[in-house]
Structures are given as C-alpha cells and as structure tokens.
C-alpha cells in the first residue's frame, strides 16, 4: 500500500487526519484529499506552475494542511512566514521569494494593512473571511478532482533571522517528482524514531506550523496514516490534557517545552494519564542535562532527541537508552556523514570542539544569496548549519553552541549555552539568555538576561542567589558580569531565542552611553 494521504483517503476515508486540540475541529483523510485537490486546481487557476511560490501567514489552523498537501501535488513552492515578523520583514520575504500571492487570516488584519500599503498589487486570500478574497469561496469554486499534471512540491523556509535578515533555504529538487514517492524523512521516522507505518499513530504537534519541524513531522505522520493533533498554542497543562484526551502515541517538542512542563506543580504533572505516549521527539536547541534526565524519569525512556536544521543537510538521533550512557549527546549521524573542522578547515580529533559539517548528496542553497551559500560550504563540498560541537569515541555528537553566539571576553572564547543550561535549572528561573555586550576593557562582557518565574523575585537578592548557584560549576571568566531581569524573552514558540534583538539592544545602549 502506498504511504501517502491520497492512498489513505482511498482506503480509510473517514479516519481523522487532523484534530485541532483547542476547538476540536476535525478533517478526515477524504476531506483533506479533496481540499488539497481543490487547492492544487486553485493554484493552477491563479497561474502558478511547478516551481512558482506562494506565501502563507497563518496561525495554527486546520486550513494549513489543505495548503501543504495541495502544494505538494501541484509542484509549487510553499513559503511559510513567521507570525511574529513585522510587515517590512514579511514584505522582504514576499519579494525575495517572488511569491505570486499571500494566504493569511483575520488574525493578521493589522499587519496585512501594512503589507497592502507596501505591496498594493499583491493578490491575497483570507482564511475564515467572506467576500472576494475568501479562501473558502475560492476553494469551493474548484473541482475536487486531481490536477492532470501532478508533481511533488517543496517548502522554502526562511531562516529565523537570529543573526541578520532571514534567508530562504531553497531545497534541492526532489529526486522523484512523483508526489507519492518516498521522502528521506519517512525512513528516518520509521527506522530511526520508530514511528509506526500501520496508521495507528496519533501525533501531537504543539509548535507553530510555519516551522520546519512541525511541517516536516506532521507531513510524515500523514504519509504514515496518522491522526495529527495540533495545538493552537502551547500551554504545558493543555498539552498533557491533549495527550490523555486523544491517546497520543507520538509527539515532538523543544527543550523550552520541557522546562515549562517541569515548572508545573507536581499535582498538575501527575494529574493526567500519559500511558498511551510511546515516543517523544525533541530538538531545536541543546537540552540541559538535568532537564532531560528529569523528563526521562517522569515520562520514561521514550524521549528521543535529534539534531538537524531547516536546511535538511543531515540528522543525528539518540534514543533515551543511549542518551543515559552518553548524557548531553544528540547521537550519531543517521542521515549524512559528520565532520568536525577547525578554523583552517582541517578535521579535528575525538573530543575537540569545531564547526559541525554534514556530507550529503542533496544539499540546499540560500535563495538569492550565493555568498551565504559559499560561507556555509567546506572546500570539500560539505555544509554547516553554523553550530559548534565535538564527537566522542563512539561517534556521538555533542553540541556546544552556535558559532554566532560565541562571546569573546578578554580574548577568551565563551559559549553562552553552558551558562543558560545551568540558569534554567534554578527553581526560580523560567528562562534565560546569555549574550556578549560591548565593554571598553574586555571587548565584550557576559550579560545574563533572566526571566524569573515570579517577577517579584527580581533584584539584587536573586542575582546573588544565582551567582552562588553558578559558581561551583562555572569558571570565573564565564560568570556573568551583569544580570538583568525581564518578564519575558524574545523567544519563538519553537524554542528559538532571538539573541540578535538583545545584542542589538545592548549595543545601542552602549553607543548611547559613549556619546552622552
């Protein structure tokens, strides 16, 4: 049997394909297949051929899957747009990707007005609206029969812009243009992560659908005939309730979710039946060892971690049992070959920190940015995501930090991830970001920006408590010179921390102080 939503629509038409956790709204495989065909025809009616792009600015809502699967059989390029971006940032992506039109919803009415002012000729369709721009009306006008020229579409994600303007990650063309062809992530899901291919999976997606992991794993879950349960917005207790209510078997998280889970009161954590939960994937950032260990103690050895990126150049995977003997590791490579290289490009030995490269047959490019593509490439044709790490004697990879996050203070290289991982384990800390701020003597000083669980705790007493907490595990040169407290940090719902915003803010403050 073909592993694709079209086949599941034929064989299990009434099986739920999507359930929205909050509203309870559902879509069966038949409904999803028919809607996808209508959207593929709508793309053709709007003049889009294979390879043409359209953009999507939507909150988590059921229509997202119509767009994903319609584009996937129309051969077009879906460009998901982060919902936290400003209108000028969105316009940059629309223009850079050459998007033929934008699909959005009423939730973005204010930003849409700004986009229209900057791009008055851009066609727009609005989910949940009525009138001539209604997505539902446009779909209803199309036949539910497949288009005659089906081909596999692609998704072009844009980097989060944590170190500058976002860049489009243009994937390599599919090896097989057949929309029902097997894709690499299916093998990694079944043979690596152990996801079942018999249609029994109930997969919980708690993160925004415009990110790489939710789109990728939800799509694979649908290929495997699963029911995908989508949270409109992550809340830790609501997620536990969703696992119990829908008898979730599989899920995908980021370390920030785990921290939020563990900050819940014990009686809330123990309130829900999680016995159906068999596999929990997590990625996106290094997970503090104590956090991961406590999650395994709570959920059992079902928590599997992977390391990958939107670029899809490679992947590592570590099962819970392996992690317990290689604490802190993200595992050996299961897709692509790992290389750890020094500044001169030469490969480093076991245990030596360097830039992580993947060697692979299919590699992407950065859209309209050959310099960035060249910068990411090793002379031998390998590609890096910009992360620093090392490999142990068993071939297990350990992440140190992002190269772009490194702080150089007094000539010493300091990786903030180590400090952040310690801070979030303190029982009064919800979140933490460590950055380098300009300093006339040291070049950069280490600054910890901390989100307390209770802002009433913020102040000198908590700073002293945190310094005492860090001291036994942190070299003096790494100890933050400054602690600042805030009610929240600029963090994406997928766990990505926008350190650039903080660094820019502190740089402006330093410039203002100098010029005062």
Strand order in space, largest sheet: 2-1-11-10-12-13-14-15-17
Total number of beta strands: 27
Whole-angstrom Rg: 23 Å
Strand content: 15-25%
Shape: globular
Poorly predicted runs are none
Counted by DSSP, the helix tally is: 17
Major sheet details:
9 strands, mixed
Structural class: alpha/beta
Approximate helicity band: 25-40%
Mean pLDDT: 93
Q: How far do the termini sit from each other?
A: 71 Å
Describe this structure in words.
There is one protein chain. Helices cover 32% and strands 24% of the residues. It is built from 17 helices and 27 strands. The model has no long low-confidence stretch (mean pLDDT 93).
Looking at this protein, list some descriptive labels.
17 helices; nine-stranded mixed β-sheet; five-stranded parallel β-sheet; alpha/beta; globular; 516 residues; single chain
What is the secondary structure topology, with strand pairs?
Blueprint: H1 5-11, E1 16-20, E2 26-28, H2 29-45, E3 53-56, H3 63-74, E4 77-80, H4 87-97, E5 99-105, H5 109-118, E6 124-127, H6 135-140, E7 154-155, E8 157-158, E9 168-170, H7 184-192, E10 202-205, H8 212-223, E11 227-230, H9 236-246, E12 250-253, H10 255-262, H11 266-269, E13 279-282, H12 289-299, E14 303-307, E15 315-318, H13 320-325, E16 329-331, E17 333-335, E18 337-341, E19 354-359, E20 365-366, H14 370-376, E21 383-391, E22 397-402, E23 407-409, E24 412-414, H15 416-423, E25 429-439, E26 443-452, H16 460-470, E27 482-485, H17 499-515
Parallel strand pairs: 1-11, 3-4, 3-5, 4-7, 5-6, 10-11, 10-12, 12-13, 13-14, 26-27
Antiparallel strand pairs: 1-2, 8-9, 9-20, 14-15, 15-17, 16-22, 18-19, 19-21, 21-22, 23-24, 25-26
Helix pairs in contact: 1-2, 2-3, 4-5, 10-12
């Amino acid at each position: 049997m073909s592993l694709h939503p079209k086949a599941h629509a034929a064989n299990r038409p009434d099986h739920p394909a999507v359930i929205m956790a909050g509203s309870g709204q559902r879509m069966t495989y038949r409904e999803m297949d028919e809607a996808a065909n209508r959207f593929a025809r709508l793309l053709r009616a709007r003049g889009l051929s294979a390879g043409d792009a359209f953009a999507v600015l939507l909150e988590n809502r059921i229509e997202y899957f119509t767009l994903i699967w319609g584009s996937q059989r129309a051969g077009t390029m879906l460009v998901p747009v982060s919902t936290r971006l400003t209108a000028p940032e969105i316009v940059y992506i629309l223009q850079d990707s050459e998007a033929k039109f934008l699909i959005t919803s009423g939730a973005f009415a204010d930003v849409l007005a700004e986009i229209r002012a900057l791009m008055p000729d851009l066609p727009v369709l609005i989910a949940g609206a009525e009138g001539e721009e209604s997505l539902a009306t446009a779909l209803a006008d199309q036949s539910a029969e497949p288009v005659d020229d089906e081909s596999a579409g692609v998704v072009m994600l844009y980097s989060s812009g944590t170190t500058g303007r976002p860049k489009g990650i243009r994937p390599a063309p599919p090896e097989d243009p057949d929309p029902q062809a097997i894709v690499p992530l299916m093998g990694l899901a079944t043979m690596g992560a152990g996801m079942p291919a018999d249609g029994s999976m109930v997969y919980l997606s708690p993160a925004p659908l415009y990110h790489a992991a939710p789109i990728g794993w939800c799509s694979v879950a649908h290929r495997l005939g699963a029911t995908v349960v989508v949270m409109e917005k992550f809340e830790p207790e609501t997620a536990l309730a969703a696992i119990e209510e829908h008898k979730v078997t599989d899920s995908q998280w980021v370390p920030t979710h785990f921290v939020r889970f563990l900050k819940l009161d014990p009686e809330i954590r123990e309130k829900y039946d999680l016995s159906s939960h068999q596999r929990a994937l997590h990625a996106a950032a290094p997970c503090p060892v104590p956090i991961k260990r406590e999650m395994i103690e709570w959920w059992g050895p079902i928590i599997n971690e992977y390391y990958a990126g939107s670029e899809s150049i490679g992947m590592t995977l570590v099962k819970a049992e392996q992690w317990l003997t290689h604490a802190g590791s993200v595992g050996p490579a299961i897709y692509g070959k790992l290389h750890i290289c020094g500044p001169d490009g030469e490969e480093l030995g076991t245990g030596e920190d360097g830039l992580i490269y993947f060697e692979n047959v299919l590699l992407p490019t950065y859209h309209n940015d050959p310099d960035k593509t060249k910068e990411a490439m090793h002379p031998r044709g390998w590609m890096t995501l910009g992360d620093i790490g090392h490999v142990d004697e068993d071939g297990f990879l350990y992440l140190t930090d992002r190269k772009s996050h490194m702080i150089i203070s007094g000539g010493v290289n300091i990786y903030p991830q180590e400090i952040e991982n310690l801070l979030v384990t303190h029982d009064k800390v919800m979140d933490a970001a460590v950055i380098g701020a300009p300093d006339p003597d040291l070049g950069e000083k280490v600054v910890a920006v901390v989100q307390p669980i209770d802002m009433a705790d913020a102040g000198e007493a908590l700073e002293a408590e945190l310094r005492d907490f860090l001291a036994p595990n942190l070299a003096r040169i790494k100890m933050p010179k400054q602690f600042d407290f805030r009610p929240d940090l600029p963090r994406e719902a997928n766990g990505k921390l926008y350190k650039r915003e903080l660094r820019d803010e502190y740089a402006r403050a330093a410039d203002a102080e100098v010029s005062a």
